[in-house]
Amino acid sequence: MFLLYEYDVFWAFLIISSVIPILAFLISGILSPISKGPEKLSSYESGIEPIGDAWLQFRIRYYMFALVFVVFDVETVFLYPWAMSFDVLGVSVFIEAFIFVLILIVGLVYAWRKGALEWS
């Protein structure tokens, strides 16, 4: 039976974790000093007056490299619990994990062929 009183701790946690950031933003908005001027609107780079434009373009290759890193970093997070309980789960879970790793290998080969792993 689904009983709502069993979830009192969950609702209390949800409400408190929602109210604290809202209160933090409201209090900082009320207490923060508001002073607008040319000095406030200028770029700050360790006390030195900036030279040139602040808009710099980066090559997409850096973002692609970071994205491939994040994908394979998250892969290890998914594989770790599986590896820790491998002996209990059985053959079907091994086949599923094998298919998961094969899909990731196909993605790695694709990124490699497209040159996303080249840093230069």
From TrEMBL:
Its EC number is 7.1.1.-. It is found in: Mitochondrion membrane; Plastid, Chloroplast thylakoid membrane. The chain crosses the membrane at residues 12-31, 62-83, 89-112. One of its GO terms (biological process) is photosynthesis, light reaction. It is an enzyme of class 7 (translocase). GO terms for cellular component: chloroplast thylakoid membrane; mitochondrial membrane; NADH dehydrogenase complex. Keywords: Chloroplast, Membrane, NAD, NADP, Plastid, Plastoquinone, Quinone, Thylakoid, Translocase, Transmembrane, Transmembrane helix, Transport. It catalyses: a plastoquinone + NADPH + (n+1) H(+)(in) = a plastoquinol + NADP(+) + n H(+)(out); a plastoquinone + NADH + (n+1) H(+)(in) = a plastoquinol + NAD(+) + n H(+)(out); a ubiquinone + NADH + 5 H(+)(in) = a ubiquinol + NAD(+) + 4 H(+)(out). Pfam families: Oxidored_q4 (PF00507). GO terms for molecular function: NADH dehydrogenase (ubiquinone) activity; oxidoreductase activity, acting on NAD(P)H, quinone or similar compound as acceptor; quinone binding. It is a multi-pass membrane protein. The keyword Membrane applies. NDH is composed of at least 16 different subunits, 5 of which are encoded in the nucleus. PANTHER family: NADH-UBIQUINONE OXIDOREDUCTASE CHAIN 3 (PTHR11058). Belongs to the complex I subunit 3 family. Core subunit of the mitochondrial membrane respiratory chain NADH dehydrogenase (Complex I) that is believed to belong to the minimal assembly required for catalysis. Complex I functions in the transfer of electrons from NADH to the respiratory chain. The immediate electron acceptor for the enzyme is believed to be ubiquinone. NDH shuttles electrons from NAD(P)H:plastoquinone, via FMN and iron-sulfur (Fe-S) centers, to quinones in the photosynthetic chain and possibly in a chloroplast respiratory chain. The immediate electron acceptor for the enzyme in this species is believed to be plastoquinone. Couples the redox reaction to proton translocation, and thus conserves the redox energy in a proton gradient. This is NAD(P)H-quinone oxidoreductase subunit 3, chloroplastic. The gene is ndhC.
